[in-house]
Amino acid sequence: MNQDYIKPDNWSIIEEGFDAERVKSSESLFSIGNGAMGQRANFEETYSGETFQGSYIAGIYYPDKTKVGWWKNGYPKYFAKVLNAPNWIGIDIEINEENLDLNTCTEVRNFRRELNMKEGWYNRSFEAVLKNGTEIAVNIRRFLSLDLDEAGVIKYDITPLNKDAKIVYKPYIDAGVTNEDANWEEKFWEPLEVKKGTNEAFVTAQTFKTHFKVTTFMHNTILANGENINVSPSTIDSTTDKVQYTYGTIIAKGQTSSIQKIGGYTVSLNHENTLAGAEKVIKSAVALGYETLLQNQIDAWAKVWEMSDITIEGDVKAQQGIRFNIFQLNQTYSGKDSRLNIGPKGFTGEKYGGSTYWDTEAYCIPFYMATKDQQVARNLLTYRYNQLDKAIENAKDNLGFKNGAALYPMVTMNGEECHNEWEITHEEIHRNGAIAFAIYNYNRYTGDYSYIPEKGLEVLIGIARFWHQRASFSKDKNQYVILGVTGPNEYENNINNNFYTNYIAKWCIDFAAEQIEKVASEYPADHKRVMDKVSLSANEIQEWKKVADDMYFPISKELGIYLQQDGFLDKDLVPVKDLDKSQRPINQKWSWDRVLRSPYIKQADVLQGFYFFEDHFSKEELKRNFEFYESFTVHESSLSPCVHSIQAAALDKMDMAYTFYLRTSRLDLDDYNKEVEEGCHITSMAGTWMSIVEGFGGMRVKNDQLHFSPKIPKEWKGYSFKINFRNQILKVAVNHNETTFTVDGDQDLTIIVNGKPEIASKFVQIN
């Protein structure tokens, strides 16, 4: 834990007291989104202190030319930037002719932020003394509408406390924005058109290179004590990329002046005419009005929480943590659009770039399958199917592979590889396996096999072809090996025979071959269509199988474990507990050379294989491998604690499971890795959900049935969650005395609890 200023609360993220040192961290933590767009919790008014400005639009990106010191063949030509979008929230404010700026105020008191996760709004309030002696009380509420997802709303209230005040509001929209992480300090936005109305304005701009067109809009209403006073702007200032209106008002001491600002974006992904689309959004939002928009927001979030909430009794910090994670996941991805995906920072920052990593398939799909309609998960699979041609092109052009072999990108926006670290781009090839596993996992959980003959089989064939060509035969070992890779543990590069990579490569080939046979038997028309399209012969499949059947796995017979890679035991095996705490996190303290030579593990690697393929190994094998590798794991990846929590629970190491759960659920709230100001770790938040449902709840799917082995941390009085399993809603409630399984509806559901079949229906309890 590196920060502890967020107040414990079951439903809200709360900060009290103004501290300029934590402004950027709070901008991340209090971020809001609605699946179509999102923004950091930047101040609406001028702030001259340190800040990280950020607004983002789903699917909009810029191909920033790769910048490296030494170019290697195969480097991606660009790194896809999550673009800082035009600013629509800005409202410069003057009070008695002095600019409101919390960085320069004489005093700031009673400062409070609240992110109300239950109702989906962000509130900031404070009292301030300006240099001119004017004292004011301010309250601002902001939300991004879930229903009208191209629109956001701000209500900014100012009450003078010690004298009457002349208040000047200067709301603006501005497309002249830049990214903090731009490689070449290029401008990403080209202004096209500005349009001004009485109280509304529009700036249309397009991205250079990618030519996404975006119209940013605003509509302003000035109020006194809650009543619209029908003020028109006294001046309108504009440039090619910015429009700013000025509204002057006078308000008596103790009375409240307000501006309501509706703003947002319409994009060419969804509109042929973005300006006309923006005018329509404003018309709809104004017709509804602030109070109705807010109530609709509250109602929409109530529906989200009805299915996705997890309750924890007796541990407020744990409860706050899981709800924060679930809230951010639902803000980031709604599942409406198969062109979109879940970026590792969501709408909270620019780091990493791209919208898709293997995190989606490995961690996020289980959450969306269980808490949404299965179509949402199917959309995520379809996203990869639609980019199969690019994956084949990637393997061909960058690695010299042939015959339709597919390597999915480590990072992508449109299917092209855009990660700019060579050792990750070309060596962390295990991501292919996660994509194949997600297809298997979707079918296992939903029972919907139709995706495989329709789309998935082509993906599996491309991936199997990749592994067949990537493996090489070792005469010394008389087996197939995979050389020069980076496993999930990115603290080892260019190593040979990473266990996880080799294991999932074998599994991918075997699974692809099995599905080819099944589709041939049960979906002959689809089988013929796919075989004709990919020109796959029985002889080629036999060649694949030779690789899978003779794949090499490094092991230590002495320790009874699989080795993370061939040379792992050659390292100086000093466990983490003996590492000086002043040296943590090692990725911020040590040279990269020292990190690579150390035994320290960034995240689950061998144990990632045990997580995916739990049924392939005995409990004793898991115990030996877990105890060995956990002792060297520094958990400096956000994806690490959740897997360890699930496996600790499976091994009845409940104190450890709880500690890992708390770390994954509060990774950002407590800033464990000293980096939250860069944005939150969105994709790993799905792992927090897994830590409860799969870890403490022990949920698994085997032979088309749900299995549970419920456990409860001693720190909790009880917990509950819901899952949508094959269109049946099951609620699981666990306390120290009993576990209750309740089915929503009249149809019973047979489940397996601690290895024993039970009927879960209304009011049936399993003790």
Counting H and I runs of at least 4 residues, what is the number of helices?
19
Low-confidence stretches: none
| Percentage of residues assigned to helices | 25-40%
Number of strands: 33
Percentage of residues in DSSP E strands: 15-25%
| CATH top level class name of the domain at 11-65 and 78-308 | Mainly Beta
What is the CATH T-level topology of the domain at 11-65 and 78-308? Beta-galactosidase, Chain A, domain 5
CA-atom Rg in angstroms? 27 Å
For the record, the CATH architecture of the domain at 11-65 and 78-308 stands as: Distorted Sandwich
CATH superfamily placement of the domain at 11-65 and 78-308:
Glycoside hydrolase, family 65, N-terminal domain
The rounded distance between the terminal residues' Cα atoms is 37 Å
Please, what is the average pLDDT? Answer: 94
Principal-axes geometry comes out as globular
- Mind summarizing the main beta sheet? 10 strands, antiparallel
The chain-level structural class is alpha+beta
Pfam families: Glyco_hydro_65C, Glyco_hydro_65m, Glyco_hydro_65N
Domain Glycoside hydrolase family 65 C-terminal: 699-757
InterPro entries: 6-hairpin_glycosidase_sf, 6hp_glycosidase-like_sf, Gal_mutarotase_sf_dom, GH65_N, Glyco_hydro_65_C, Glyco_hydro_65_M, Glyco_hydro_65_N, Malt_Pase/Glycosyl_Hdrlase
Active site: 490
Description of the structure:
Helix content is 33%, strand content 25%. The strands form 8 sheets. Strands 1, 9, 10, 11, 12, 14, 15, 16, 17 and 20 form a 10-stranded antiparallel β-sheet that branches. By secondary structure, it is of the alpha+beta class. The chain is globular and about 85 Å long. The protein starts with 11 loop residues before the first strand and ends with a strand. The relative contact order is 0.09. The protein is built from 19 helices and 33 strands.
